Amino acid sequence: MTLIATLDHADADLTACLARVMAAILKPGDVVALEGPVGAGKTHFARAFIRARQGEMAEDVPSPTFTLVQTYEDPMGTEIWHADLYRLTHPDELAELGLDEAMRDAVVLIEWPDHGGPLPDPLILGLEPLAGFPDLRRVTMAGSAARWGGMARLPAIARLVHRAGWSGARVVPLAGDASARRYFRLIDEDRSAVLMDAGPGSLGPYVAMTQWLRARGLHAPEILAADQAEGLLLIEDLGDDLVARVIQAKPDLAPRIYDRMTDLLVELHGHQPPEFVLPLDGPELARQVALFADYYPPAAGGGSGAEVAAVIERLHAELAGGVPAVLGLRDFHAENLVWLDDAPLGLLDFQDAVAVHPAYDLVSGLQDARRDVDPAIEQAQIARYVAATGVDEARFRAAYALLGAQRNLRIMGIFTRLAQRDGKRRYLAFMPRVWDAIQRDIAHPALAPLAAALKGIPAPTPAVIERIARG
């Protein structure tokens, strides 16, 4: 048994806030043993937890002191069992109550757990009133580190949410990105916000870029509250209308949306990039594309790609050298932009911004690994950017092809690594689209040396993808 975390000086609101945060995390088969004397707040915690899980379905949550067990269902169909074993006369009665079976398939909250005998690897949540402060308590979480170690950050999250004035909000998990960050939506009547859990010491780049973008009128989410030491931010909720979803639902909007994306880049590139971002220059692009040679050819069963990095570095010097760098958001694509109708596009996931050639983010938006972009739209947006900025069109198009090839080759390496090292095989389905983009890019006459360096490397056919998936 390991002490996982502690929350000190918790009043009733902060205790309930911790319950709401935990409600966003627990899953069927999780058992929470609520320990503490009479009046410590066990039922208060369970009530906040259950009502948070139920959301709009929330109902009254009476104490199960006399019924021993109360059951509830959340909108996802998960059963929640709330038990009070104080009046239990013998541990064998657990089976009669159905708790033994519920602990396998439901989320189970148990008050006075010591009256029921051993539990299957529970999270032990202790509530201890503070001497001399009847309205405050010390909350501890203990359990096996292997199963419950992820709970360690919940007190810090609850403290930030409480301090920011959102302690009554329901906490709902949001789909994350490919990083280790976690996101939650806070819903409190007619307002909402997003909580980002990025991990201790990791928020500097995000906060700096947020301030830089917002100072220039670009729509990065406003920071509402922060705990930078813990790596937690409460930020403006831009909503769910990601550009990717809007285009899928309303394909006829695509030309207008891509016009807005290109115009945003033109506006962004009109500003000198901040000094705190790192350069993404020829040597760094070459270093990053080495992922391709390291992973894809060996997994695909042909060629080596050993010359690719050196060729890209040389071509970058020839085709992009001397062009002033601009700020590149790096992951500028339809999954990281929010459509806000006539308002400026909302920006997400920009903490890895770099100083890079102007074509880099345009490629990122138009050669999207996750979705097909009409070739006519791609060509129209390249022309739109050239017309708006006055860059040399022939040289820009050559650099665009080079940066597209570099970016897509690196993505092929990343997808292979994700499948073979991390067991994340869903990205393999995107490989044919990425490979097709590479072939279009290296067809540019200026990229003939890169086409030669890729000769003999097999395309991601169904058989090759199956080979990669098998590892």
From TrEMBL:
It is found in: Cytoplasm. Keywords: ATP-binding, Cytoplasm, Magnesium, Metal-binding, Nucleotide-binding, tRNA processing. Pfam families: APH, TsaE. It comes from the Bacteria. InterPro entries: Aminoglycoside_PTrfase (IPR002575), Kinase-like_dom_sf (IPR011009), P-loop_NTPase (IPR027417), T6A_TsaE (IPR003442). Residues 171-389 form the Aminoglycoside phosphotransferase domain. The keyword tRNA processing applies. PANTHER family: TRNA THREONYLCARBAMOYLADENOSINE BIOSYNTHESIS PROTEIN TSAE. Belongs to the TsaE family. This is tRNA threonylcarbamoyladenosine biosynthesis protein TsaE. The gene is tsaE.
